[in-house]
Design a protein that fits this description.
436 residues, alpha/beta, Adenylosuccinate Synthetase, Chain A, domain 3, 10-stranded mixed β-sheet, 4-stranded mixed β-sheet, globular, binds guanosine-5'-diphosphate, binds 6-O-phosphoryl inosine monophosphate, binds magnesium ion
C-alpha cells in the first residue's frame, strides 16, 4: 500500500485539505507533520458517507463544510485514523475545540493519535508574537507559531509528554512564563497569566486527549511495515518553508518533503507518491515578494471568483497569475511525482490568461526561482499569454469535457514541469473533480 505525501506547491491554500479528504476514503492513517493552527484546510463534503452510525443531523445530509486547523483532513472518514506528529506545534485549547466540532459532524469519536514529542503552543506565544512585532512585520496568522517553534529550537518548549507529569509540567511552564514576563514587565496581558492557574487549566483540558498521547514514530513505522495506506498532509507550502521558502516571509516549520522525515520520523524514501497541489493561478496571504501578483481589476476578479479570503484569519488573499518558475522550483525540491491542479473553474471568463514562464531581473532572463528576497522582489515575470475560455467548468467530470483552451492550459503546465497532472479540481465540493 502506498505512503502518499500531499504538499502545497505555492504559498498555501492550494486546496490540500480537499485532496486529502478525497484520497483518505481508502486510507488507514492521515498525518499532519508540521505547523499548527496557522493552517486552515476547508473541506466541503456533499455528505458524510463513510461515517458509521447516524450523523448529528441525521446521516445523509446536504453539503457540509469543515475547516481543519490541527486535525488532518482525512479524519472525516471512519476507517482513517488521524495522527498529529511531533513536527507540529499544538494549541491544546484549539485541539479540544476542534475535536468537539469534528465529533459533532461525524456523530462519532474520531480515532486520533498525538505524538508525545509534539510541542505545545501556549497562551503566551501569540502575545509574545505581537509584542515582538513579527506579527505585523510579516503579517503572520497571529497564532504564535514563530515563538512556539523558537521555544522548541531553544530547547525550553513544553511537549505533549510533559502533560503526563503534572508537577514537572507546572514547573516548566512557570519557568518559561517567568522568562517572558521578565522581558515585558509592564505588559498587562502577559503579566495577568499565572503559571499555576494556567497549568491547572491546561492539565484539565488535557484529560480530553491524554490517553491519545503516544509514540507516533513507532506507530507510523509499524503501520508502514504492515503495508498500511498512509497520507501525509502538508500544511502551509513550499514557498513558506523556513529554509526553502522566501525567507523571512515564511512560516517557522518545514512544509516540504523533508518535513515528513523530521516531523513524523518516517524515512522519505518510503513515500511512493509525492503529490504537489497547485492552484491554477497563485495566491499569497501575508507579506513578501510575489512576482505574478495581479494588482487592480484582474486580481480583484480572481479574489471574488475564487473566494480568496483566508480560511484561518479571513484576510483577503493577494491574487495573481500562475508562476511556472516557482512551480518548477517546488517540483524540484519536493520531487513531485504528480500534480493536482485546483480551482481551474475560477479562470473561466478571461479572454486570455497570462502564465509566467521565466523572470527578467535587471535585464537578465532567469529560469530558476531566486529565493533571495531582495532579488525576487525585483523580478518581473515574463508571460506567455494563453487563450481563455468562457464556459463554466464546475460540472465537468472528464478531461475531454473541458473546453479546448482549458485543456491547452493544463497541457502547457504538464509540458513545462514534466509532471503529469492527475487530478483537476473544478469546485470546492468533493464531487467536483476530474481524475486522469
Ligand atoms: P488548503 O489550506 O490548501 O487546504 O486550502 P484552503 O482550504 O485554505 O483554501 C482552498 C479554498 O478553495 C477552500 O475554500 C476550498 O473549499 C476551495 N476550493 C478547493 N478546490 C476548489 C476548486 O477547485 N474550485 C473552487 N472554486 N474552490 C475550491
Ligand atoms: P495552509 O495550510 C497560507 C503565512 C502567513 C504569513 C506567514 C507566516 O492553510 O495552506 P505564521 O503564522 O505561520 O508564522 O505566518 O505564512 N501562512 C499561510 N498562508 N496558508 C497557510 O496554511 C498559511 N500558514 C501560514 O500568512 O504570511
Ligand atoms: Mg488554507
Amino acid at each position: 500500500m502506498p505512503a502518499v505525501a500531499v504538499l502545497g506547491a505555492q504559498w498555501g491554500d492550494e486546496g490540500k485539505g480537499k485532496l486529502v479528504h478525497l484520497l483518505a476514503r481508502d486510507a488507514d492513517y492521515c498525518v499532519r507533520f508540521n505547523g499548527g493552527t496557522n493552517a486552515g484546510h476547508r473541506v466541503v463534503t456533499s455528505r458524510v458517507p463513510t461515517v458509521v452510525g447516524v450523523g448529528a443531523n441525521g446521516g445523509e445530509t446536504e453539503a457540509q463544510e469543515f475547516k481543519f486547523h490541527l486535525i488532518p483532513a482525512g479524519a472525516l472518514h471512519e476507517g482513517c485514523a488521524a495522527v498529529l506528529a511531533h513536527g507540529m506545534v499544538i494549541d491544546p485549547y484549539a485541539l479540544v475545540a476542534e475535536l468537539e466540532a469534528l465529533k459533532e459532524l461525524r456523530g462519532s469519536e474520531p480515532e486520533i493519535y498525538i505524538s508525545s514529542n509534539a510541542h505545545l503552543l501556549l497562551p503566551y506565544h501569540p502575545i509574545v508574537e505581537r509584542l515582538e512585532g513579527s506579527q505585523s512585520a510579516l503579517d503572520t496568522t497571529a497564532k504564535g507559531i514563530g515563538p512556539a517553534y523558537r521555544d522548541k529550537a531553544a530547547r525550553i518548549g513544553l511537549r505533549m509528554s510533559d502533560l503526563l507529569f503534572p508537577q514537572r509540567f507546572t514547573e516548566k511552564l512557570a519557568a518559561v512564563l517567568e522568562r517572558y514576563q521578565r522581558i515585558w514587565p509592564d505588559h498587562p496581558e502577559l503579566q495577568r497569566l499565572r503559571a499555576q492557574e494556567l497549568a491547572h487549566e491546561i492539565l484539565r483540558l488535557a484529560e480530553g486527549f491524554r490517553d491519545r498521547i503516544v509514540d507516533t514514530v513507532r506507530l507510523l513505522n509499524d503501520a508502514l511495515d504492515q503495508n498500511k495506506y498512509i497520507i501525509f498532509e502538508g500544511a502551509q507550502a513550499t514557498l513558506l518553508d523556513l529554509d526553502l521558502g522566501t525567507y523571512p516571509y515564511v512560516t517557522s516549520s518545514t512544509p516540504t518533503i523533508g518535513g515528513i522525515g523530521s516531523g513524523a520520523g518516517v524515512p522519505p524514501q518510503k513515500i511512493s507518491r509525492v503529490i504537489g497541489v497547485a492552484k491554477a493561478y497563485t495566491t499569497r496571504v501575508g507579506l513578501g515578494p510575489f512576482p505574478t501578483e495581479a494588482l487592480g481589476s484582474a486580481g480583484d476578479r480572481l479574489r471574488a471568483a475564487g473566494q480568496e479570503f483566508g480560511t484561518t484569519t479571513g484576510r483577503p488573499r493577494r491574487c495573481g497569475w500562475l508562476d511556472l518558475v516557482a512551480l518548477r522550483y517546488a517540483a524540484m525540491v519536493n520531487g513531485f511525482t504528480e500534480l493536482a491542479l485546483t480551482k481551474l473553474d475560477v479562470l473561466t471568463g478571461f479572454d486570455e490568461i497570462p502564465v509566467a514562464t521565466s523572470y527578467r531581473y535587471h535585464g537578465r532572463v532567469l529560469h530558476d526561482f531566486p529565493t533571495v528576497c531582495e532579488i525576487l522582489q525585483e523580478c518581473e515575470p515574463v508571460y506567455e499569454k494563453l487563450p481563455g475560455w468562457h464556459e463554466p467548468l464546475s460540472d465537468c467530470r472528464e478531461f475531454s469535457e473541458l473546453p479546448r483552451a482549458a485543456q491547452q492550459y493544463v497541457r502547457l503546465i504538464e509540458d513545462e514541469l514534466g509532471i503529469p497532472i492527475t487530478m483537476i479540481s473544478v469546485g470546492p465540493s468533493d464531487e467536483q473533480n476530474l481524475w486522469r
